[in-house]
Amino acid sequence: MSQEFTFTVSDPEGMHARPAGLLVAKAQQYDSTIIVSHDGKSVDAKRIFGVMGLGVKQGDEVTVKVQGNDEAKAAAEFEQFLKENL
Questions:
Q1: Catalytic residue among 5, 11, 16, 67
Q2: For residue 5, which phi and psi values (nearest 5 degrees)?
Q3: Model pTM?
Q4: Mind listing the pLDDT tens digit for each residue in 5-63?
Q5: DSSP per residue, 52-65
Q6: Alpha-carbon dihedral sign for residues 25, 10, 84, 80
Q7: What is the C-alpha R_g of the chain?
């Protein structure tokens, strides 16, 4: 089983270095695998170059898939993190 949700980025700068770094740090708090997908590309949310390589801009929608032992907690907290930071 896995958890999945979509999120629309509202930060005027998109997913630039600072929020990407925060996102990676947040993802690393969980045992679950967290995959962020945008425009046909999927990356491990625990890898900064992958996240920045997605090129997410303001108004873009990303899909987040969480799978693992703590997936329910990770998905809920990660979604809240995105709302507060992106």
A1: 16
A2: -150, 160
A3: 0.94
A4: 999 999 999 998 999 999 999 999 999 999 999 999 999 999 999 999 999 999 999 99
A5: HHT---TT-EEEEE
A6: negative
A7: 11
